[in-house]
Amino acid sequence: MAKIVGGITTSHIPAIGKAIAEKDFESHYWKAFFDSYPPVREWLDEVKPDVAVVIYNDHGLNFFLNAMPTFAIGAAQEYRNEDEGWGIPEIPPFPGDPKLSWHIIESLMAEEFDLTTCQEMKVDHGFTVPMQLMWPERRSPEVRTIPVCVNTVQHPVPSPKRCYDMGKAMGRAIRSYGEDVKVVIIGTGGLSHQLEGERAGFLNQEFDEYCMEKIVEDPVALLDYSIPDLVRLAGSQGVELVLWLMMRGALSDKVNLLHKKYTIPISNTAAGLLLLENLD
């Protein structure tokens, strides 16, 4: 049977991709951020997951405001990246796992989650930056991927509870898969940040640190927040916390915190990193 080995949270801002392309790892601005990731990479090298389920939000490359699904899942043989500006070069496609994708899709539909199923899918920095951070220079090209895209752009967006519940259902789906594969769940985005309006540049370290603590120990404590609550407390883009909650929902109730880092500011964003070992 399939096994979920753990979960990772990470920021996905495009400036990280530009720094990776320029190998700007040691500058004063970036060093503390990039120095956070070797423990996660070492764990991945040790555990060797077969599949990475990457939960992210699209920023206009595959979906736009005229057609923005609440939940979309890739079921393709591969996922292509294209130029989206930001100074990030295009990178080679990522291999998919259509068989596991369809199993998850069918299981989620049976639990009454309405999905957009993508047999072709372009992936932007929300997906590619985390993959580059976890597997630099594609050290593990054999890792297959399943993109799970959640709307955090066009309101109304799904609530923390809705995303956590879908994560729970996704975890059940993966555990019921009949093949011996190891799966890591990556929740991307955030933490607090706002890119527009009078509060542009807004950060809330106290709330961020509270969320990072609760994600590990008591994620249910975050489920009563509404989307307006998250906008007020974490900024208009801080609603990406729901992507972390979906990841956490897919794991067991009890997890082991292996690594934690919080870095501000990174491109007007509070960057959070968690590595959680699943204990089922």
Overview of this structure, please?
The protein is of the alpha/beta class. The chain contains nine helices and ten strands. The strands form two sheets. It has an eight-stranded mixed β-sheet with strand order 6-3-7-2-8-1-10-9, sandwiched between helices. A hairpin with a 7-residue loop joins strand 9 (255-263) and strand 10. The two termini are 13 Å apart. The mean pLDDT is 93. Residues 8-263 form the Extradiol ring-cleavage dioxygenase class III enzyme subunit B domain.
Helix and strand layout, with pairings?
Layout: E1 3-10, H1 14-21, H2 31-34, H3 38-47, E2 51-56, E3 71-74, E4 78-79, E5 94-95, H4 98-110, E6 116-118, H5 125-134, E7 144-150, H6 160-175, E8 182-188, H7 205-217, H8 227-234, H9 241-250, E9 255-263, E10 271-278
Pfam family, one: LigB
Keywords: Dioxygenase, Oxidoreductase
InterPro entries: Xdiol_dOase_suB (IPR004183)
The CATH architecture can be named as: 3-Layer(aba) Sandwich
Average pLDDT figure: 93
| Domain module tally | 1
Major beta-sheet overview = 8 strands, mixed
Query: So what's the CATH class?
Result: Alpha Beta
Index terms:
280 residues, alpha/beta, Protocatechuate 4,5-dioxygenase, Chain B, eight-stranded mixed beta sheet, two-stranded antiparallel sheet, 20% strand, oxidoreductase activity, acting on single donors with incorporation of molecular oxygen, incorporation of two atoms of oxygen, dioxygenase, oxidoreductase, Protocatechuate 3,4-dioxygenase
